[in-house]
Amino acid sequence: MKRYQLIVIGAGVSGLSTAIAWLTWKKGPVLVLEKEPVPGGCVASFRRDPYRFETVQLVPDLKDLMSWLGVYCAFSRYTGTLARLHLVRDGHVRGYSVPADLQGFERQLREAWPAEAEAIGSFFDWCDAVHQDMSRMSLEQNPFTLIKNVITCTHAIRISRNTWKEFLARFRFKEPELIETLDVFSSIAEVSGDIGAAMITIAVMRGTLTSGWRIEPGCSSLPEAMRRRVIELGGELRMNTRVDRILSAEGKVQGVLTSAGEAIHGNTVVSTVDTMTLIESLLDDNVLIKAKAPWSRAREKLTMSQSMIAIHLGLDDEIDLREFGIDGAYNVLTTGRSAHEAAFRRWKKGEAVPPVDPKQGYPTGVPPEEFHVTFYSPSLVSGDTAQTLVIHVSPVYGPPWIELRESDRDAYLRAKDAVAAQYIALIERYLIPGLSAHIRFRDISTPATFARYLGNRDGSCYDVLASVSQYGIGRLPMRGPLEGLFQTKFSHGIWPAMHAGMQVLDLVTSGAVMKRRARFRPGHEEP
Fold first, then answer.
1. CA 308 from chain center: how many Å?
2. Which of helix, strand or coil describes residue 342?
3. pLDDT in tens, 78-136
């Protein structure tokens, strides 16, 4: 009977990086199992001729990680504009750009708001100090490492319980538009500023502004390059293979059971699936009953992230998107950060936004008075002649959408169309006049779509919510409740996903790769 040294559940970026890191360092038979026919998970490109869409527009600098893993892929660096804020006040739009340069962004803010120059300088100094601290923080927390972190990572520790909104309040900014511009990074971090941990938003801001890149020719080329690397190193991949259960005995992992009934034996199992799916579906109940905190309380305590609605549009050539000031990797159209915060409050209450219950009626297509929506144009970034636009509506509470699709498919399709019409009308009203007349292709993904694809119960798109209580020191450990079981949950995004594979290897090798630090620093690993 073949026994693998490592079994990885999921061939997304984190699963592939785990397999590559293991094969590079430890050798031994490695098997990656993926329920879909292609690798990549949430990192994907898809084409509906002649239109091409990308799920990922922006990644921070990956060269150190990719060099260590031996993965080679083409990238192009963003120059000029990285993101744009379109702020609506009294029915009028005012635009603020974010350059693809950290020093340039600070300089731009100082020039725009000279009275705030001292506070702006202090803000960037703090962000730099926190970022440096995060590279020194310990990967696993215990009394010794907590004391070490308090001594050596003072800035990060001081804001470890701060939301992004609370962190910004430290600097007593007086200009509302300055605060709104900085709050763009809470949108990129996919969580409102009054909920999201300041440390994750600082990491997002620093990572994207210091070195923001686009994967060429499309984002699916990265997982494909990683797949090839796994094979090159002697690893195995099985596609279209769903794992139903993690096998264990006497508190130790023994392998996995597939949906086809095949038991595959292994010494170490790494799960990259949705954390709640791991807890509720892959682990036996008695495992969690016997587990120590925080795993014993995870089912009741964890808050998973929101779902969303993604509207993909293909346009004709009678409109030119270059004329509308929506270049860059990220655009935010909003009436203010208060709208973003209000949307998250409704989501936490379980309100269906937009309403999907047939008894409540559907959105009318009339833009709401308060809104916060993000969008981007893959074609403007890639240079494709077939013009595309992608609109993200988030947060969205998933269960009503999932239930509607199961109970009334026709009503579900009508609800999808109505929501798309509403947000297309929003973009059309404020930024792209006549947009709807130029749409030739439309595809709408809802929480029901994400629940099916990601294999979770509520369409959660970003795994565990990156709130203060669940990020950093409060994060669920990467060591699972069984000996030999790990989960690659650092945070969402390509860099954290690739990095998580290195973190797992560091845990298995007792710190040989990263010296038990939370971040990989090239040249610090043992030979």
1. 12
2. helix
3. 988 999 999 999 999 999 999 999 999 999 999 999 999 999 999 999 999 999 998 88
Please state, in angstroms and rounded to a whole number, the distance separating the CA atoms of residues 466 and 14: 17
Cβ atoms within 10 Å, residue 474: 14
H runs (alpha helix) in 384-476: 399-407, 409-430, 447-454
Q: In the structure encoding, which two tokens stand for residue 521, read together?
A: 């620093």
CA distance 387 to 322: 10
**Cα angle 384-497-101, degrees, rounded to a multiple of 5:** 55
**DSSP per-residue codes, 128-192:** HHHHHHHHHSBSS--HHHHHHHHHH-HHHHHTTT-BHHHHHHTTT---HHHHHHHTHHHHHTTS-
Report CA 107 to chain centroid distance, whole Å: 28
Q: Which residue has the tokens 């587990």?
A: 291
The residues facing 268 across adjacent strands are 6
pTM comes to 0.94
Instruction: Give the closest residue to 400 by CA, choosing from 366, 372, 362.
Output: 362
Rounded Cα–Cα distance for residues 363 and 471 (Å)? 35
Contacts of residue 322, defined as CB under 8 A and 6 or more positions apart, other chains included, come to 380
Identify the pLDDT of residue 527: 44
Cβ 278 vs Cβ 457: under 8 Å:
no
C-alpha span between 88 and 9 (Å, rounded): 44
Distance of CA 212 to the CA centre of its chain: 15
C-alpha–C-alpha distance, residues 231 and 242, integer Å: 20
Range of weakest confidence among 24-33, 201-210, 366-375: 366-375
Return the DSSP state at 517.
B
CB-side neighbour CA atoms (13 Å) of 365: 6
CA dist., res. 436 & res. 458, Å (int): 31
Q: Which of 405-409, 471-475, 486-490 has the highest mean pLDDT?
A: 405-409
Averaged confidence pLDDT in the chain: 92
